[in-house]
Structures are given as structure tokens and as C-alpha cells.
Amino acid sequence: MLVSAFDYKQWSDRRTLAAMARIDRAAFPEAAAFTAQQLNHMVIVEELFRARLAGTPAPHRATNTDTVPDLQELAQRLAASSEWFSCQARDLTPAQRQQRLSFTFADGRQGCMSRQEILFHIINHGTYHRGAIGHALDLARVAHPADTYTVFIHEAEPARRG
């Protein structure tokens, strides 16, 4: 299920990015800035959890930045992150998925989660922020994509509609 969930995440992220690119930045600067900030936060959180899973130092001190990279950079980082997490979901053994990792959150508080819980968190976290982006897209008069799991599985497997 985790493998399928990360396939869904990649699909949904691509649809969200395509919609974000359609925002009229001159007419709706606040919506454009908000969607970029949300995406920036998503990417940073994913990069922090990637480091925790890999046992490497945290690449960021906070879960957002004062300066938000452009959409192209964020899209590239998000795609790389999603691919990395997809590989983790596919390659971890059942025993590795249950392994608990202790770490420090960006706010300095301690945390402990299994690798599987971290993978689930990444799926859930992205869904939450894509929903916030969807609201900003509505305000900017850009149709937000239907990005639910049900749409994904029926698009991926059209025979299910039969």
C-alpha cells in the first residue's frame, strides 16, 4: 500500500504543480506567494525526514525559509524527494519498516517514529498542504485538480470503472 501511496503522491504533486503554474501572478500575488510557501514547506519537511531516515544531519534548521525558491526549483526538489521516498517504500523490508528512529524536530523537541510511520506522515503531510494549495487556487480562479486517491486509481487502472 505504501508503494501505491507514493505513486499517488507523485501523480498528485504533478497535478498540483501544473495548476500552480496557471496562477496569474500579477492579478493574484498573494495566492501565488501562499502556494509557493506551502510547497516550500512540503519540500523542506520531506528533506528533513529523508535525512532522519538516512541517518544524516538535518539539512534545514526550520520548516520554512524567509526566501522561497522559484517554482521550477521547488518542483525539481519535490520530484527528487518523491522518487527517494518511493524507493524507500519499495525497498524496505518489513522489519526495517518497523524500526523506530529517535530524532530532534526542527522546533527542538524530541521525536520517535518507525520508518513506516515516517513514510505515512510524508503522504499525509503532502495531502494536507495540497488541500491548502487547492483553496488558494480557488481564490486565484484556477481550477484545482481532482487529486484524490480514488481519481488516481481509476485513472491508473481505467478497467476499474467497468
TrEMBL record:
SUPFAM superfamilies: DinB/YfiT-like putative metalloenzymes
Domain of life: Bacteria
Pfam family, one: DinB
InterPro entries xrefs: DinB, DinB/YfiT-like
Keyword Lipid metabolism: no
Annotated positions binding a divalent metal cation: H41, H125, H129
GO molecular function: metal ion binding
Keywords, comma-separated and alphabetical: Metal-binding
Family: Belongs to the DinB family.
Protein name, UniProt field: Damage-inducible protein DinB
Origin organism lineage: Bacteria, Pseudomonadati, Pseudomonadota, Betaproteobacteria, Neisseriales
